[in-house]
Design a protein that fits this description.
Two copies of one chain form a homodimer.
Chain A lengths: L3 H11 L5 H12 L2 E2 H11 L8 H13 L3 E4 L13 E4 L1 H12 L8 H9 L6 H27 L1 H4 L2 H32 L2
Antiparallel strand pairs in A: 1-3, 2-3
Helix pairs in contact in A: 2-5, 2-6, 7-9
The structure holds a DNA duplex (28 and 28 nucleotides).
DNA sequence: GTTAGCATGTAAGGAGTTACATGATTTT
DNA sequence: AAAATCATGTAACTCCTTACATGCTAAC
């Protein structure tokens, strides 16, 4: 049925893992086959400089995905596989499946800064239902952070120095802005999917 | 001159380390002796919910600081040291020295989100010179992030989907706000220290 | 021909979390 | 006396970075 080593590799390499990077890589490769170096530049661009990821993370991740059978190495030229030539990766059918699965399962780590950013980058092709769940989860998450900051600020007069207070105020503003933005997005989603 | 084990302990436990948590702990303990559990609550409050730190980080950190001789365990009651009683820690003279040293040396990791937040929390007792260095470093850092986002947004029309673009716009706004705030702080510092 | 940038990869280590285990103290 | 919360601690694990090592390819 299944080759033991592949199954074990799959379980070992991708099940315990939150896999934000893996998700991002699958998402990028779903659009077109790319090589590692280029993938990193795409990540920087598409995640808006929020997150860089070093090559020390990138290449091992590509290897894990390959071992799991989610992507394959499209050896650019036949014949001589030149030791340090670029390796173009292509997503497999299982990779696409897994990508959709990961989006559908989107849980708590899809609403932290990093996970949310990655999920958002592929929103155009995400089902409305999943989009809503992520947006609402993110909103809850940001609202919680906002409340934490508010309560910290409320106790601020006494203990906290004015510099920290101002920084917290900046953070609070940012939270409020994001919540407003999320509210708009969620309203739009409802309008578009509703009637 | 120095006891070998203490010196080794010191080098081993605090030299290779960026030590944001250690800095925060020393800073809090400089104000008053506190026990671990309480320190964590203080961290949440003082860092404005930006950073929580689990006990799995906190207690080992306290142990490292103790081994390095920067803090000491003030066994609350004499006599029976009750297995799981609270341990109140007090900062030592060396601890205070080290705290000032760490602030004075404030380098690149004092201007990332976390490090900056911690340094700011103790700004009231930070020398003007150090304050300026940290504020200007932070400004440079945020300006860089801002430029990264701007250039990502500039290329946005083509590749990036509108959701990500909007998120990047939020991030860009936040950067701009912070830079403006930092500019004000820096101007004030100059006025106060100048004439 | 040598510098700069493209491209891939690995080993070691840093900084933290989670999950667990224990016990003291207060509240219900 | 049970439940909640306070309080301390450890081991295993996760995820990532740094520093290094290698080699290709284009430009000057």
């Amino acid at each position: 049925m299944y080759r033991f080593d592949i199954v074990v590799g799959y379980i070992a390499s991708l099940s315990g893992r939150s896999g934000v990077l893996e998700l991002a890589l699958l998402g990028l490769l779903r659009e077109a086959p790319v090589h590692g170096y280029e993938l990193r530049k795409q990540l920087v661009l598409r995640l808006g400089g929020l997150r860089a990821y070093s090559y020390g993370s990138l290449y091992p991740a590509l290897r894990r995905l390959t071992r799991a059978g989610l992507i394959v190495e499209e050896s650019g030229q036949m014949g001589q596989p030149a030791k340090r030539a670029r390796k173009v990766y292509r997503i497999t059918a299982e990779g696409k499946e897994r990508f959709d699965e990961m989006r559908a399962e989107a849980g708590p780590h899809a609403w932290d800064d990093e996970g949310f950013g990655v999920h958002l980058a592929f929103f155009a092709s995400t089902p409305t239902e999943t989009r809503m769940r992520i947006l609402e989860g993110r909103r809850r998450c940001v609202e919680e952070r906002r409340e934490g900051m508010r309560s910290a600020l409320a106790k601020a007069g006494e203990q906290i120095d004015r510099y920290t207070r101002q920084l917290q105020q900046l953070g609070l503003d940012a939270c409020e802005r994001e919540v407003r933005w999320l509210n708009e997005l969620i309203e739009n989603e409802k309008k578009e999917s509703g009637p």
